[in-house]
Amino acid sequence: MATTERDLNLIKKAEFLISNTDPTRCPEEIFPEYAFVGRSNVGKSSLINAFTNRKDLAKTSSTPGKTQTINHFMIDDAWYLVDLPGYGYAKAPKSKILDWDNFIESYLKTRKNLVAVFVLLDIRLEVQKNDLNFMNWLGQHHIPFAMVFTKLDKISSSQFNRNKTAYQKKMLEYWDELPPVFATSAEHFQGLKELHQYILYNNQVYQEFLKK
Ligand code: GDP
Fold first, then answer.
1. Ligand 1 touching residue 151 (CB < 6 A)
2. What angle do CA 159, 34, 183 make, to 5 degrees?
3. Domains of the chain, with CATH numbers?
4. Which protein residue's CA is at the shortest distance from atom 27 of ligand 1?
5. Among 28-32, 39-43, 120-124, 181-185, the least confident range
6. For an engineered disulfide with 72, which of 17, 23, 92, 131 has Cβ 3.0 to 4.6 Å away?
7. Which residues on neighbouring strands pair with residue 158, listed in sequence order?
């Protein structure tokens, strides 16, 4: 049976802090930070809203005039959730990893408190070249990331296993080791507890690291 919203209630407090296109204007790097990113329509806004138990903390794709900014949220007075712009389908110039503005690359490369990037992947789709390029780029820059599959409710468990295996096989062509993998549904609130545990664990590790 699908978990209900009320059963979960993982995050007690979610506050919008700032949107900007200048990484130097992001909030002070005093809390651990996790960035959500993926191709447009992957289900990023839905996942953030389900995760934080808010209807419209992150604006969905259909919002007119949705701006392409780095959006910071303070979660439970303990960590930052960052909503990055979705990357598109347009052909990116060779000099860029994706058809993104340079400020996002700069944010990812310079943000000291960035603990992990959650790369959102639609579980219904085959491995997409720009997702793979992006993950490889993160690896090249030593930016930790996890794969977060979305829309789990849209496929059967056998399809899920097939698609997940295909993904992992593809990743192992480039990587010796696989990143953490989460399977989520914003619709059925699946996988959110696991994601939350991962964040809490890493927040602890981060605090220990700061003490040293
Ligand atoms: P974004 O562009 O990545 O922010 O994507 P949205 O969150 O706006 O979602 C894109 C579309 O996918 C919308 O029509 C959502 O209702 C749908 N969607 C997102 N997450 C899920 C999910 O977990 N299950 C189902 N069935 N649909 C979803």
1. yes
2. 10
3. 14-211 (3.40.50.300)
4. 151
5. 39-43
6. 17
7. none
Q: Is 168 in the pocket of ligand 1 (CB under 6 A)?
A: no
Q: Residue 168's closest CA among 189, 190, 156, 183?
A: 183
Q: For 147-157, how does the pLDDT look when each residue is reduced to its tens digit (9 = 90+)?
A: 999 999 999 99
The mean per-residue pLDDT over the stretch 162-177 comes to: 93
- Ligand 1 atom nearest residue 44's Cα: 3
Q: Is the CB of 187 under 6 A from ligand 1?
A: yes
Evaluate: CB of 40 within 6 angstroms of ligand 1: yes
Please check whether residue 124 is in contact with residue 151, taking contact to mean a CB–CB distance below 8 angstroms.
yes
Ligand 1: distance of its center to the CA of 44 in Å? 7
Please give the model's pTM, rounded to 2 decimal places.
Answer: 0.92
Measured CA to CA, the distance from residue 149 to residue 40 in angstroms comes to 14
Q: Is 155 in the pocket of ligand 1 (CB under 6 A)?
A: no
Q: How confident is the model at residue 61 (pLDDT cuts 50, 70, 90)?
A: low
The residue whose two tokens read 């204007």 is 25
Gap between the Cα atoms of 81 and 206, Å rounded: 15
Label residues 117-154 b or e (16+ Cβ within 10 Å = b): bbbbbbbeeebeebbbebbebbeeeebebbbbbbbbee
